[in-house]
Amino acid sequence: MDKFVIKGGRPLTGSIPASGSKNSALPALAAALLTAEPVILRRIPAVRDIRTMQRLLIDIGSTVEVTPDYVRLDTREITSPEAPYELVKTMRASSLVLGPLAARAGRARVSLPGGCAIGARPIDLHIAGLEALGARINQSHGYVEAEAPGGLRGARIHFDKITVTGTEDLMMAATLASGETVLENAAQEPEVKDLADLLTKMGAKIEGAGTSTIRIEGVKKLGGADHTIIGDRIEAGTFLVAGAITNGDLTVTDCPVEHLGALIVKLRQAGVEVTEDGSSLRVRVSGPVRSVDITTEEYPGFATDLQAQYMALMTQAEGIAIVTETIFENRFMHAQELARMGANIRLDGRRAIVAGPRELTGAGVIASDLRASASLVLAGLAAHGETVIDRVYHIDRGYERIEEKLARAGAEIERVD
Ligand code: UD1
């Protein structure tokens, strides 16, 4: 298993490009199941979750051509409308094929995800939504089966809780349902909007994506499309924090600046200089960094996927920062590992109280999930001495060659077997 060895204490300088958004690319790949015509997707990041989704699509019947410039998907026929446990357990986003399969093939069999490192992650809202669209649902042997031999029909669906992939899954299903579907209390994440843009190119009729109410007028058939995925706001945000935590002067290029508002506000309040230049964001630290509280929220609030990285920064800030996690119930696994490196963090239910600044010292730490591992990399960059991060496959799920990108900006980081 690969590890990262980091020698900390070097300010990051220069520039790092952001990749295409993983969380936008995953539903876009699933959307290709909705049509028998080829779909070309550009700026698909080369990360492990994407390879997992491509493997799943091949199992289902797609031909997947991966080139350095684009991924081309061709699904003339759905040969096996199923997402097996082996894939769903490594990547919950596999459930994104449920809606497209039910809509196009009239049948889907998808493994139910179990618990995961950051808490329970049920897909009950995806299932209830499909039932509202007229699918017959049966759950047994750890699988959910949806059947709609006569096709889905439009409905009004109100989400009890805001769910990103749930909104995407049902938006895709509704594109081929008969009549109108209204999704209320829908997720407003930029990835939902990007998916709607792709579906619209494929011939779908969608209004309101990016707001809390999405209207979809079903069509009989969707066609091919050529679409470029948006930049990854979470990866870009991670690099911005990397620049700040190392007291560096770092520019992130090809950056989805407009999707990073909540992070930029907090960084500026903390005393980090953030400047915008077209699609680039530059962070610079010249004075002390101050503690600033955050509470994670659905978009446009502070992203839960940046909470762990921000917590690492707060270990270096002056004062006390309260980090409140409202989206997932158990997303503080990184706190104990940061504490092993010298951070002063007390957990109190959904709140983490971070007192800083504390000098971090290199240690052996274990990555527990994707974003927690990113926070350990950041802490390692700021720490004195050597940090060894085990189980970096978690980080490879969502970051494209992170060690190469960071090394280009002056970090001393190496992947070892
Ligand atoms: C997506 C992102 C993930 C991010 C998360 C929250 C992708 C591929 N992943 O995950 O990186 O951390 O949004 O911004 O886009 N819930 C239910 N029932 C459901 C679905 C969700 O109770 O049927 C709950 C979840 O347990 C969680 C909350 O709703 O507490 C939000 O989850 P959701 O938005 O669905 O997260 P994902 O779409 O899985």
Structural write-up:
The chain has helices at 22-31, 48-60, 85-88, 98-105, 124-132, 164-175, 190-201, 233-245, 261-269, 307-314, 333-340, 370-382, 393-396, 402-408, and strands at residues 3-7, 13-17, 39-42, 63-66, 70-74, 82-83, 107-111, 115-116, 119-120, 136-140, 143-147, 156-158, 180-184, 205-207, 213-217, 225-228, 249-253, 273-277, 280-284, 294-295, 319-324, 344-348, 351-356, 364-366, 386-390, 412-416. The chain is an alpha+beta fold. It has a four-stranded mixed β-sheet. The termini are close together. Uridine-diphosphate-N-acetylglucosamine binds next to helix 1, helix 5 and helix 6.
Features:
4-stranded mixed β-sheet; single chain; binds uridine-diphosphate-N-acetylglucosamine; alpha+beta
User: What are the segments in which pLDDT stays under 50 over at least 5 consecutive residues?
Assistant: none
- Shape from CA axes? elongated
Strand content: 25-35%
Helix/strand-derived category reads: alpha+beta
Radius of gyration: 21 Å
| Overall pLDDT score | 96
| Helix-residue proportion | 25-40%
What's the β-strand tally?
26
Small molecules bound: uridine-diphosphate-N-acetylglucosamine
Rounded to the nearest angstrom, the distance between the terminal CA atoms is 6 Å
Query: Major sheet, described briefly?
Result: 4 strands, mixed
Strand order of the largest sheet: 24-25-1-26
The total of helices stands at 14
